[in-house]
Amino acid sequence: MLWHHGPMLICEEDPPFCLDVTDMGLPDDLVPRLAPQLAQAFARMAELEAGAIANPDEGRRVGHYWLRAPERAPEPALQQAIVAVQARIGDFAARVRRGEIQPAGRPLRELLLVGIGGSALGPQLLATALADDAGPLRPHFLDNTDPDGIDRILGRIAAGAGLAATLVVVTSKSGSTPETRNGQLEVAAALRRAGLEPARHLVAITGEGSPLERQARQEGWLATFPMWDWVGGRTSVMSAVGLLPAALLGLDVQALLAGARQMDELTRRPEATRNPAALLALCWLHAKETGRRDMVVLPYKDRLELFPRYLQQLVMESLGKELDLSGRRVLEGLAVYGNKGSTDQHAYVQQLRDGLDQAFVTFIEVLRDRQGPSLFVEPEVTSGDYLLGFLLGTRAALRERGRPSLTLTVPDVSARSLGMLIALFERAVGLYAFLVGINAYHQPGVEAGKRAAAAVLALQRRLLAALSDEPETAGELAARIGEPDVRTAAAVLRHLAANDRIVLVSPGGPLAARYRRKQQGAEAPGRP
Length: 528
Hints:
Structural class: alpha/beta
Number of domains: 3
Helix content: 40-55%
Number of helices: 17
CATH superfamily of the largest domain: Glucose-6-phosphate isomerase like protein, domain 1
């Protein structure tokens, strides 16, 4: 049942969910003025869910909505595939929890997920919000290509049940993402150093027919699960990317899907003021029109600490676009950052209230404090009462200064509630993109960054090949190989020298330092 209290407050009765935009200052004419665009956005969203091409750049559909409602997938084969994969995930996780899979003769106790972007952030959010220390496996994440970070994670596993009791899930749609490949190679090397066979510990989540899938099958990994091309990384948490780790951690996968499905149903309503995703998108549009392009997400619950980071990728990668669908330069986007309450009281609320007026706040309120009864820290006052007081007090302090905010309320941090929140923002992103005429489902800027990184590594190979026993500066070496970007060449050489791969002969500034190659027979860096 949906309670509708005018254009500023929408509440759902079961489970309790509210969106209160009273403090956003929406003008009375906003919905009537945008009625044609809203009708078109709803129609475009319906076409997308029916299987229309969403990303013309790649000829790709976007079907993350089908993951929690397989019957809505446009072809029976897709419906069957979704159901079959979810069943396989449940079966595999149950076997692990029952101790039927023991790669080194010991029950699995540690779960290491190797991925980046949406392939890591969604599972991290689920683990942080929903998993407990008493769960069947202890989660760890390699979500970067930082060698020191990799060593720290492997050290934590060694201090726990050890690599022999570790299941490793490698997630990469293409199977060639450098950060994930690097993490996979580092973990495989660590397993071999421990006298273990990597394939007996490894699971792949990847595109069908990808290099990673071929490697997993050739080497006999424990299992492979698909990443379909119609599921983008930032909306993949309810595919195998998120569901497999969730099931392995003992989380309620069906409740997560059910919560998302319920929110999908609510956000298909064609009336903007009865549709929480449409109302959220209208708030973003109004914020843009009033010069506020920063959304500060403040969840007043420790378990939702990663939710602002999750929304950073979902919102900023989807909406940060230079061109609209007509090719016009629009520089669209919404910057997202945040911190958990009441930590925010001691961080940047001072600026939000009294400083530069370019942000609006999204408060997330959780009604249930804890599973059991709470201690009274003062007469008739608990720690949770203080938490609510800080939320409402911060909201009132912003209101005094005319600083806009909106509030989302959920009953608890459960799988169902988290599924609802994720689905709400997914739909809001899609509707907002249709309202402003951009493509929310491609990411040319990300691809440009990947191409630029590949060019840097190609330059590094050229520099290493050109280095001789005669010391040279970055400028001299760059001129000799015909490289105009001396600054980048200097940064590469400095990094190589710091890691003992070349010799720094004479220190100085980045452009004055001189380098030579290491002597023949010198020990190569890295681990066997």
